[in-house]
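Quick note —
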Amino acid sequence: MFRKKTPAWKTHCVSTDKVLSRIAPGMHIFIGTGTAEPRTLVNALMSAEGCNLEDLTLIQLLSFGDAVSYNALESHRYRLKTFFSGWVSAQAITAGRVDLIPARFSKIPLLMKEGLIPIDVAFLQITPPNKNGYCSFGLGVDVARQVMKQADFVVAEINEHTPFTLGGHLCSYK
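Predicted structure written out below.
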């Protein structure tokens, strides 16, 4: 009988609790968008409790409101900054729970590179590594590469259902 060998990348996996323990009050956390949203991480962040999870700024290109919902923002633990309204209602903006940053999509990487949009932590979603050790951002080919360069702490949630796409959006898990 043959046993299937555990992939080497699985030895680098950590729990969401361990990830969240590295978050400090006042941090700016970038969250992948849409199909590239790391749902396990975001759901853990939204439901976790702790004094270190206060006064956090969540940055998302476009929020669809599934995980980072208006109800989650009512806790006053998080403030959402987004570039496109998505689910964001006038009520959320008027209530001061969401900052809408008007910018052309093509200018967002430059805003991040120049530090006008600070990012301390990046929560991204990637594919499992291929045989050469490279991962793909899958359908999330927006600003993920720029965010990885800027953030001090990068957490990639591996989704085995994310399609592996080629191009300039590959990263090494090592």
